[in-house]
Amino acid sequence: MKEKKRASAYFDTAFLLAFIQQQAARTEEAMRLDLESSLSGQDKMLREALHYALLQGGKRLRPVLAILSSRLCGRDDDKLYLLAAAFEYLHAGSLIHDDVIDHAENRRGKASLIKKYGMTAAILTGDWLHARSMHLIGSLAGQEGLDTVCHATRAMVDGEFLQLRYAADPAVTEEQYFSVVLRKTAGLIRSTCAIAALFGHADCEQQHALAQYGEKIGIAFQIVDDLLDYLGDEQATGKMVGNDFIEGKMTLPLIHVLAHTAGDQRAVLVQALERTPRDKDGCGMARQLMHAAESFTFSQQRACLEVEQGLAALSCFKKKTQSATRMQQESLMILEQLAYYILRRDR
Amino acid sequence: MKEKKRASAYFDTAFLLAFIQQQAARTEEAMRLDLESSLSGQDKMLREALHYALLQGGKRLRPVLAILSSRLCGRDDDKLYLLAAAFEYLHAGSLIHDDVIDHAENRRGKASLIKKYGMTAAILTGDWLHARSMHLIGSLAGQEGLDTVCHATRAMVDGEFLQLRYAADPAVTEEQYFSVVLRKTAGLIRSTCAIAALFGHADCEQQHALAQYGEKIGIAFQIVDDLLDYLGDEQATGKMVGNDFIEGKMTLPLIHVLAHTAGDQRAVLVQALERTPRDKDGCGMARQLMHAAESFTFSQQRACLEVEQGLAALSCFKKKTQSATRMQQESLMILEQLAYYILRRDR
Asked: What is the pLDDT of residue A11?
């Protein structure tokens, strides 16, 4: 009976989304208050740019993960929402710098910060967010938290360099793809969960478990991102379909199709990939070949596998459900739901 | 006799430069070792870009100030050179982002990092340096050190926004100029001295004194920079003369000449300042008017005044010369020399 209840809970999307919305609102309130106090007397345009960057929507995945991880370890207080805000700052700062690098005009279906405020404002706003984020994480999670986040930030930079190196290279392997994803996306999600566990006074085993969970769902998150780039609905994602191909990003479906297509078809695909500028026709052809080679199915299955490994990592928390508080039990359940939701998201 | 000796020591430039060179070399060694360990297994291009950004010369003012401040408080060990390196990282990261913002092709007479490695590498290398710097400062100077440096970094961003707002605006006042300088240049130099004092286990009075010293010589440093931009030797500075005017930067001599020139002459100057693009002819005219209005003399005097105030702030250390070690006495003397040297520097 209990098992059945849990299984059905996995698909209770409405409850999950309501929880995310509620926690996102609390995080936004924490961001507003923090900006108010830390921007006192500072330039109007900086204030505007920060509000634009932070308070125009977003999935709030990282804050929600931070909140759940800490609550799972038994801690929930006002400071937790400031810690959650710090992870959103770090993420937003990195997105802004990414948009400068990619000359991106849109973000979440609106003008990107660089488009709206110009490059100077974009670089500086990103720097401000990074500095504030590290400050908050250092204050709230101590030296170990600071070590972890700085390490993850540097790895993120390294991942970007690797991605640059691998761009439009048909010889890139799955292994190389995962080394980029671990640095670029999964590392920061891993560190979010690990630092929130530390903040929540987790023991070593729990901290490691949450780090593992974060890493695995971070990988799944990135694979789903890769899929949405070929298969998504532009209205829902707010991103142009086919962008990754046009930028020459070696994502999982592309690596798979290159490894599972032969002869002339592969030669034409490689040609389309190596051509500059790459175009929508090349991308359309790639998508067709991916369907034929079942590259999307393969990628989806790989994402599922990562999610399962992420959930398995949380098993140490399941052993303790007898002594767990209601908040801890609820957090564990939502972390599980969230992992499955990542597989099904459409934006 | 003692007084006379000290007075002559102020002008012993050769000794000062040898000291700076020696400490710069130790800082560079610390940077090399730190890059080696923190870049292990990371991308080759990131490694190259970091070496290019950090090990191609530079005045090393911030590391030398950190070393002297800590030594003045009685601490000198290997970790001090890593702390000194952290301030150079922060400075280098900010310069790189500045060069992206200004589309600068040159830095210290060589190709800027953005020119050599492209914008993506420049933004990411700057981010890496900021993250590593905050990590090191947090590790070596604890939470208070991290607070101070993050605060200064955010103020620096705010200063850049203010400078953007004030660009080419003939109504900018001296007060507004100093509010930019305090945030943009002097704040980071202030925090360098303050954090190094903290690292050196300074008491509250000493920490405040070194912070004041840093702030004042930081202001003087910026004013001399303003002067070199109009009067410097391009060979020595590695910068194009007249750059500030062409970028519309409201520096001290320009603000002074606008306040001390009237009628047609002022109108023509304002016209040259508000024209886009601004040109070398406009800059040449501004320079002539500055000579006539004694704006350079005024600025130089103001820089001297700041240096004197900076030296006065160190008086609490002079009271204790009886109990001071030789290292502490030497550090005090060199901090004094360095302050005067800033006024006389030609690059």
From this structure: 58
- Cα–Cα distances (Å) from B145 to A160, A194, B34, B151, B210, in that order, read 29, 24, 19, 10, 14
Alpha-carbon span B117 to B100, nearest angstrom: 11
In B83-167 the beta strands, taken as DSSP E runs, fall at: 106-107, 110-111
Length of chain B: 347
Q: Are A179 and A222 in contact (CB under 8 A)?
A: no
| pLDDT tier, A3 (very low <50, low <70, confident <90, very high otherwise) | very low
Angle made by CA atoms B295, B300, B304, in degrees to the nearest 5:
145
- Rounded average pLDDT over A202-208: 97
**What pLDDT score was predicted for residue A239?**
76
CB contact under 8 A, B120 and A160: yes
Angle at B56 between CA B55 and CA B62, to 5 degrees: 70
Polymer length of chain A: 347
How much is the average pLDDT of A329-346? Answer: 94
Band (pLDDT 50/70/90 cuts) for residue A233 is confident
Q: Does A9 touch chain B (CB under 8 A)?
A: no
Which residue in chain B is spatially nearest to A131 when comparing CA positions? Answer: B150
From A175, A8, A41, A152, select the one nearest A86 (Cα to Cα): A152
Question: Measured between CA atoms, how close is A164 to chain B, in angstroms?
Answer: 9
Q: Does the CB of A127 have a partner CB in chain B at under 8 Å? A: yes
CATH code of the domain occupying A2-344: 1.10.600.10
What are the Cα distances from residue B16, in Å, to A236, B146, B158? 64, 30, 34
User: Tokens in use for B155?
Assistant: 């103020």
Q: What is the model's pTM?
A: 0.93
pLDDT at residue B9 in the model? 47
State the DSSP H helix or E strand holding residue A106, giving kind and residue range, or none if neither.
strand A106-107
Q: How far is CA B35 from CA B31, B39, B41, B86, in A?
A: 6, 5, 11, 11
Cβ–Cβ gap A128/B154 under 8 Å: yes
Q: Would the CB atoms of B157 and A128 count as touching at under 8 Å?
A: yes
d(CA A227, CA A220): 11
pLDDT at residue B238, rounded to an integer: 73
Q: Which residues of A246-256 are buried (b: 16+ CB within 10 A; e: fewer)?
A: bbbbbbbbbbb
Regions of chain B short of the pLDDT cut 70: 1-11
Nearest to B101 by CA among A147, A197, A120, A51: A120
Alpha-carbon distance A274 to A170, whole Å?
Answer: 8
- In sequence order, the 6+-apart residues with CB closer than 8 A to the CB of B60 are B20, B23, B24, B27, B88
pLDDT at B57: 84
Q: Enter the tokens of residue B313.
A: 């702030």
The strand pairing partners of A110, in sequence order, are A107
**Distance from C-alpha of B297 to C-alpha of B144, rounded to nearest angstrom:** 40
Mean pLDDT of A297-313: 98
Side-chain half-sphere exposure of B60, counting CA atoms within 13 A: 27
User: Do B124 and A162 make contact, defined as CB atoms within 8 angstroms?
Assistant: no
| Confidence check: pLDDT of A5 > 70 | no
